[in-house]
Structure formats: structure tokens, C-alpha cells
User: Fold this.
Amino acid sequence: MKIKDICGDIKQRKIILCGEYENVIDFIKQYQSELNIKAVMSEHKKDVKLQPYKDYGLETFKAEEAVLSKELIVICDEVKFGAWAKRLEVYGKKEYKDYISQELVDALIYQKKLLVCMGTQLIEQACRFLGYCVKLQEKYSLIYYPENDLWEGHANRMPEYLHVCRWCDVYIRSSCEKERFLFKIVGKNILKPDCQIITVADYGFTGYFPQMIKDREKYNEFLLRQKERLKLSYETVAFARTDKEIENLCLQKMNVQSITEKLMDENYFSKERVTGFFSEEVRRFKMLESTDNIKLGEFIEQHKEEILCRNLNEWNEPVVSFVTESLLQILELPKLSIDMEKRKAIIEENSGSEIPVYPSVWTALNLKGMKNKKYRVVTYYNTKYMPEEEYIYFWTEYLYKAMELVDLMGVDEDFDERLLELNKNE
Assistant:
């Protein structure tokens, strides 16, 4: 059975919209010429009074005052989809027959297959590239769900996600989410029996960053939690981890300039240590990706002289292009036609801060284009680009300030216990 067998011909039905204002406006602009949109249903009395959609010829009415029979309700609210669905079911409405998510509309109108992607930023960036494949856009309705929005629940997208996934024809996910999400989707047989599932290897890669402590936010987390209360006058950076080399040198009370000079030395890490660390990371990756459809270990090994990732979780253009082209090959679609500069611009525009690759690392691995490289640094106030020496200086100053604040203020009991546990594991 297909969703249109339950929903009917969407072009022949009267449509009622509900949801977040901007989403409703976007939906009207995109589909008013295609659909018979009759009105908007709201949770708020003020909307009935102000009639915010009157410029589009649509009346707004209060949800509990609705008298609906055969209309199809489209929920244009990714965050409150679940709440709207519960309310509509209280009114006797049935999922898919009487109400659907806006995410299903494109596939219904144009009779496309549904391609759902879920996972980390690698999947998100690949989706941006896939958006430039005309043949894919003609055949599939492409939807991306960030894994954090689902697993952490802060955006409450799980109800809509499950609502959409039941009908997807192709399901692509980051392999690092297999254990996390298997019981929620595949284990409950929510996907259609004939749904094509593709997993993409993405386990994070530290091979260029032997200085980083994984899963550690010892000082940065304290700063971010205290940011508003302390009214910090300097920029706080959302670093995902702590640089153990800078931290150790700060603990030795070296001055900022001396630390910077030390870390800029091309012999700071030995070539043996760097190449051994990189090889061990590739080995780890290959072991984890053994059951994945799209593997990265061999690609990383063969292209190690390129700058393949910008931090522990975000990949650069060569990897995103490789994953995208691999997906297109599996889907039997033509290769991307967008040029390399455009691809790099897409990655740059949608990425976070880069982690410095120490000169001793890029010398040992013979990385290309590092001597005059400027690093992207995203703070809570702006985005800037810094040469490596300036960046290490900036990061060292930042960590010193964090340490001073911790020493000055102390930490709460919960934070103290977690730091103790982290130190035990080092």
C-alpha cells in the first residue's frame, strides 16, 4: 500500500494548514498554486482577531472551533508536530487519512519516491550536494533529519520523523547511529519491507589531531554554562574538546607567546608519533565500518595528504564528495555536475570551527596547502579566519581565562564530580 491510497489525491482535497507562522507562510508560497488551500487553523485567539494570512486570501480560525469533515490538515510545524497530532486525534482525526506532515506533500503532489536521510553533519552536507542532482530531484522527495534533533529530543522531532519514515522508499543514515536508532525504526518494522536502507560510515576521525582529548569539555563547558551569569567580555568558542597540549603547557604556567612558539615548532610531535597515530585511527575506522554500505577507511588512507576533516566530527569536501557520489551510484543516478569550488563553498558556509593541524603534523603527513592556511573560527559573536599562529595564541589565551575563572569561582558539585571522573579515566 502507498500513502496516496490512504490520503487520496491531495490535489483534489480541500487543505487546512496549521503550525508555526513562518512555516505556514513558506508552505502557502510554495504550494498555493498547486493545492486547494482553504484556511489556517491556530492555537491562539489573537490570530483569529488579527487574521495574519488574509493577504493570501485565507481565513484563520481557532482549532477547537473547527468543524471539519473531509478536509486534509497539513501540519507545518516540525517542532510541535506531535502536539498537533495528539490534538487532532482527540478531534477524531486519523493519521495520513485526515492529517499529514508538510514533509510528505512534495512526494504526494509530484508522485515522487520518498528519500529520508538521518544522521550527523556528513549526511547533512551530502544532502546539500544531492540537492544539485536534477535527476534525483525529479525522482525523489529528499528529507534530512539531524540526529541530535531526534536523539536528544531538544527539537522534539521524533513524532514527525516516525510519521514520515513509515513511507520512505530509501532510508540513508550515519552508521554511528545504528545502535542508537535501530530499536526505534528498523527493530519495530516501521520502515516498509521494500525500503532500501543505506548506511554511511561516520565514526569521527582524530587522525590529524593527536593533541585533542576526546569527549572532554573540562574548561570550555564551564565557560559556556557561566557565560550569561558572568557577562563575559571576551568571545567564547564552542570547541567540542580540550587541547591537551595547550592545557598541559598552561598548567606549567608558560606564557602565551612561549606556548604558541612551542606548538608551532615543526618537530613538536615526532614523525613516528604522527604517522602511527594516523594509522591507528584508520585501523579503528576500518574495523567499525565493516558492515556499512559506504566505507571511508580506504579513502582516508589513500587521500591522507588532503585536509579531509576540519574537526573531530566534521568532514571536508573530498569526503563529502566521495560519499555523495557513492550514494548516487547506489541509486543509479548521474554524477554531480557542480564544480569543486562550489562544493568547497557549500562546505565552508555550513561548517563550524576548524581545529588547528599542528605544523609537526602537517609536515609529517605531507599535507597540502597548509603553509598559508587560515582557519575558520566560529564564536558566539561572529565568524573569523585566523592564520595558525594567531589561532593557537587565541586558543591559549582562551584556555588560560577559563582556568582562571574555574580557580576563582570554583564549580558546582555535579560539575566537580564529572571532572573527577574524567581525570580518573586519563
About this structure: The radius of gyration is 25 Å.
